[in-house]
Amino acid sequence: MVRAFGILFGFQAIGALVAGLTGLPVPGNVLGMVLLVAALLAGAVRVEWIESAADVLVDNLAFLFVPAGVGIMSYFDLIAREWLPISISIVGSLILVLVVTGKGCEIAARLSAGRDAD
Questions:
Q1: What are phi and psi of 94, to 5 degrees?
Q2: I need a surface site. Which of 25, 26, 29, 36 has the fewest CB within 10 A?
Q3: End-to-end CA distance of the chain
Q4: 0.90 cut: is pTM over it?
C-alpha cells in the first residue's frame, strides 16, 4: 500500500514539477495523471502496483468532495447572482464532454475491432 501511494504521489509531484518548470497552463495533477497513464500503457508501471491505493481513493471519493462542496457554499451569493452564465457553461461543458467521450469510445472500439481482426 505504501508503494502504491508512493507511485501515485510521485506522479502527482512529477506533474506539478513539469507544469511549474514549463509554465504550461495545465494543472500539475492532470499532467501527473497523463504521465501515469503513459507509464501504465508503456508497461513501466503495473496496475497491480497501484491498485490497492486506487481502490482506497475510489472507495472514499465522496469524502474528498466535501471541501469542494463547502467552498461552493461559501460563494453562494456570487453563484446566485451569476446563475445564468454558470448554468450555460455547465450545460455546454456537459455536452462537450459527452460528445468527446462518445467519439473517443467510437475510436477505441474501431481500433479494438481492427486488432481483433488481425
A1: -60, -45
A2: 25
A3: 39
A4: no
